[in-house]
Amino acid sequence: MKKLILFIAGVVCAIISVQAQPSIHYILKGKISSTGKEPLAGASIVLKESGTETISNADGDFNMALSAIPDTLVISHLGFRRKQVIIQNIPASTVMVIMDPSNTQLQEVTVSTGYQQMPKERATGSFAQPNKEIFDSRVSTDVISKLEDITSGLVFNKGDLGANESSLKIRGQSTIFANDAPLIVVDNFPYDGDINNIDPNDVKSITVLKDAAAASIWGVRAGNGVIVITTKRGNINQPMRVQFNANTTLYDKPDLFYDPNFLDANDFINVEQMLFNDGFYDAQLIDPTFPAVSPVIEILNQQRNGQLSASDAASQINAFRHNDVRKQLGKYFYKNAFNQQYAVNLSGGGEKTSYYLSVGYDKNRGARDGSDYNRIKLNAYNTFKPIKNLDLKIGLDYTKTGTTADNAMSEITTGGSYATIYPYATFADNKGNPLPVVKDYATSFAQSAEENGFLNWQFFPLKERGLYTTATKGSDIRISSGAGYTFMKGLMGEISYQYEAGNSPANTLINEQSYYARNLINEFSVVSGGMVTGYNIPVGGILILNDNSYHSYDLRGQLSYSNTWRENDISAIAGVEEREVQTHGVSNILYGYDPNTGISGPVDNIDYFQLYPSNQYSNIASNSGITGTLNRFRSYYSNASYTYDNRYTLSASGRIDGSNYFGVKTNLKSVPLWSTGLMWAINKENFFHSTFFSLLKLRVTYGFNGNLDQNIAAITTFRYSFNSFLTGAQTAVINNIPNPELRWEKTGMLNVGIDFGFGENVITGSIDYYRKHGVDLIGDAPMDPTTGVTQLTGNFAGMKGGGMDIVINSRNINK
Predict the structure, then answer these.
(1) Sign of the torsion formed by the C-alpha atoms of 23, 24, 30 and 35
(2) How would you write 770-797 as a 3-class SS string?
(3) Rounded Cα gap, residues 91 and 69, in angstroms
């Protein structure tokens, strides 16, 4: 407490002394030079408090009036890092300022749009970047799950599909009919593969584009926001660097007791008894299709029919009251999950080349019995500089995955009027022998099925494990190349190309002993007089085949220009690109399948058969089909920003997209989208003297993003089949009613943002720390001789802060 009081008293005295001193009129002399002691001419020099400005002469010298102490000297020069020098008192000699080249400065915080990199401090749009330290420290085999809770504006919908892009929203729902997932961009191109194939160990940076000014450069695919992922690269003149990462993570079993609304066995039975007495189950108990009812209802019905005494019925029912199906599931179907992750990468470069090579292997065992995942990853990227001003790039990314899933768990439902399984179900007796549970049909019906020639119709959960499995083997390859040429200082042309292809064959094998196979064969049995006389589905296993593949290409040509002179900074890009994505799918089902011989039996998929015991009619699903889509885009785009004195920034972007999905009329074949934005760095104004804020920026943007609903088209589309109920002939079903004026979904967005950082009037820190961050000290600042800590007066950006966006969305839906 005593030190705190002395500290506050010192601050007050310092403020009083500064306010009491008279105005100072002094000519400050200085010299600007590079790290090689070469004088720098044309450097911009500003005294923030005094408000005077000048530039250095051919010898790097400057003179300017100093009228306030303390004051901050700000020096900037093209190709060098901007520098601040704090003037604490009148220097006794010439101020020597050594500028560091920009390629040796600490990495500036930049954001990537997928088309260009820009300093975040001059960006008008709303960008978000995850905390990189936390991102890197998290252990996961996928990128998306590592972003949770550390990325502003990124919303995870836990009830959706899990850790993939379909469960993500950027600032909530932004579309009505079209795909509501954000656009995923990897290394400057849209990514068409499974986002889980991206190895987090290869990720260098992630930027989330949230508002129109940030995302509209992506046109009709940016309506839901954009996530830009940039992978790691090697550097020119960098010695070989080897990184190795190995992780093993063990997880607890899932907590099946977290649901406070779970109705335990005792209360569930009490409810069933009440409903039974009120006649709720009477219709089901006399239904000739034998719908499923729980064991308690069966016992109560037997008691009512005189088949059980009241005491025996009560004894059997009370035996259920202490059961808990959650314990059964946890004991037999869940286990401790673990993830194993191994990755090694090599990076480096010489005078004209750089390289990056990584190899990764992941093996995950899921919490459910029989669920496993493995992945092999290879990533290589090289750059070459064969001649001056020419850059050549080539990259290869290959992923091979394998996933197995045991579907026995998904089969554990009662069916009928029961949404899930009754809470007192037991899967094994005291000796561990499997017990049947009610599924789809009443117990009495299932027990007597074999006597009538049916296959066993009882459901034993413990016997189902390993009998109904799905195996998916996926592969994904991405090849990228590019060439860039610098025509003159600040002007560069680039041509980039990417080819991507992948497939994911999935085979579901259902053993003939599984309940699924037995139930389907029994339902389609030929029944006469209650006895089975034949089978429409041959007795045996079932093999479900699905093979989906895709390939895409992107071709882009772009011109980039950037220049800085005195207080002006301009950056602009313009380009054209073509994109094509084609998907293909094949599916089929084989019945009576023998995995040892690969032989299946013949099945009539055309005729309709009467099902037993429901007496409904259905054909035997063939699932045979061939599907495919073809998407083509052609786009023209441009983006420009102008910054004056690092205080005011104006940005504008425009894009015209054309697609084969758009209207058939000429004036509807293209979509124009645009955005504009303003940014004001208030903390850099001469009048800004806040002791509370070290950073204060105001941003205002407005523009339009688009989205494309690929479920509809401007012309009529059909789906062909051979499943006519009456004739079995080829039929065509209309998928889409034509809309010749079909356009797109368009979202207008007004975004007002405030970025702020907190500083202190007196900041304690070492001199070396501030020098490393571009702040030099001139004058006699008080320093503790024992700790080497100096008291500094002034506001410093880059401290902890935050920001706030106010977003107004307005949608204009064009159909």
Answers:
(1) negative
(2) HHHCCEEEECCCCECCCCCEEEEECCCC
(3) 11
Q: Indicate the pLDDT class of residue 30, thresholds 50, 70 and 90.
A: confident
The two most distant CA atoms of the chain are separated, in Å, by: 115
d(CA 187, CA 349): 20
Give the tens place of pLDDT for each residue, 434-463: 999 999 999 999 999 999 999 999 999 999
Range in 650-659, 663-672, 763-772 with the lowest mean pLDDT: 763-772
400, pLDDT greater than 90: yes
Q: Which two tokens stand for residue 786?
A: 């024992």
CA 243, CA 234: separation in Å to the nearest integer? Answer: 12
Closest CA to 233 of 204, 257, 269: 204
CA atoms of 573 and 116, how far apart (whole Å): 8
SS (H, E, C) 701-724: EEEEEEECCCCCCCCCEEEEECCC
Q: Which helix (H) or strand (E) holds 618?
A: strand 617-619
Count, residues in the chain: 815
Token representation of residue 157: 């919908």
The encoded tokens of residue 335 equal: 């286990």
HEC secondary structure over 102-155: HHHCCCCCEEECCCCEEEHHHCCCCEECCCHHHHHHCCCCCCHHHHCCCCCCEE
Closest residue by Cα to residue 753 from 602, 649, 617: 649
Measured N-to-C along each axis, helices 265-277 and 295-304 cross at an angle, to the nearest 10 degrees, of 40
Locate 721 and state its tokens: 């089949």
Q: Which of 17, 23, 55, 52 is nearest to 39 (CA)?
A: 55
- Asked, as a colleague might, if the bond just before 740 is cis with ω within 30 of 0, I would say no
Rounded to an integer, what distance in angstroms lies between the CA atom of residue 223 and that of residue 657? 13
Strands 617-619 and 608-610: antiparallel
Contact in structure between 72 and 87 (CB atoms under 8 Å): yes
pLDDT tens digits along 527-557:
998 899 999 999 999 999 999 999 999 999 9
Query: Cα(81)–Cα(100) distance, rounded to whole angstroms?
Result: 6
Task: Please list, residue by residue across 543-553, b when 16 or more beta carbons sit within 10 angstroms of its beta carbon and e when fewer do.
Answer: bbebebbbbbb
Please answer whether residues 337 and 365 qualify as being in contact, where contact means their C-beta atoms are separated by less than 8 angstroms.
Answer: yes
What are 689's two structure tokens? 């003297």
Over residues 338-356, mean pLDDT: 92
Nearest to 217 by CA among 186, 172, 183: 183
Q: DSSP string of 572-616?
A: EEEEEEEEEEEEEEEEEEEEEEBTTTTB------SSEEE-TTT--
Q: Would you give the DSSP letter of residue 180? A: -
Instruction: Say how far apart CA 205 and CA 231 lie, in whole Å.
Output: 7
